[in-house]
From TrEMBL:
Residues 32-51 bind DNA. Pfam families: TetR_N. It comes from Actinoplanes missouriensis (strain ATCC 14538 / DSM 43046 / CBS 188.64 / JCM 3121 / NBRC 102363 / NCIMB 12654 / NRRL B-3342 / UNCC 431). Residues 9-69 form the HTH tetR-type domain. This is Putative TetR-family transcriptional regulator.
Amino acid sequence: MARTRLTAQDRHAQLVAAALQAFAQGGYAGTTTDQVARIAGVSQPYVIRLFGSKQELFLATLRYAGDRIEATWRAAAEEDPTLHGLGHAYKQLLDERELLVVLLHGYGAAAEPAIGDAVRACYGNLYTVVRELTGASPDEMRDFFAMGMLITVLGAMRVLGPEAVPPQPWMTDLLASMPHAGEQ
């Protein structure tokens, strides 16, 4: 059986997908390029040849996560260009838990100058996109992003999403207090 060679773009996407899985599990500091290579089924030197360093691979993974969220919001805005519409779309990303966990790892590694620059640029871009799509006020934006961060953290802890753990009393209280909590 003949093997199909992947294009450079396909190989790049394959490695970012593997990195998303690895970095979600181990974070930036706790993940090696060898782990990413094993998940992708390639050699570790190949990962370094394509990305140059673990940091560049992590930055590519962060860019992917930001781009995926932006694309989700842009698609949602075609149907419902409101904060509610975009918020509902964001909750759908709970099915892609690794995406959100990698962002949290990025925020946690922001003391590293290149990573800090990247996560601030990502967050700023997402803020700008939501503002452009919805015309929301600064106060509405603050509340939207605060709720988004809460949803991200709850998703990472498996309080929300398809792999949610059995609820504890504090979870039930918190979820009941959230706007549109029943719309997961």
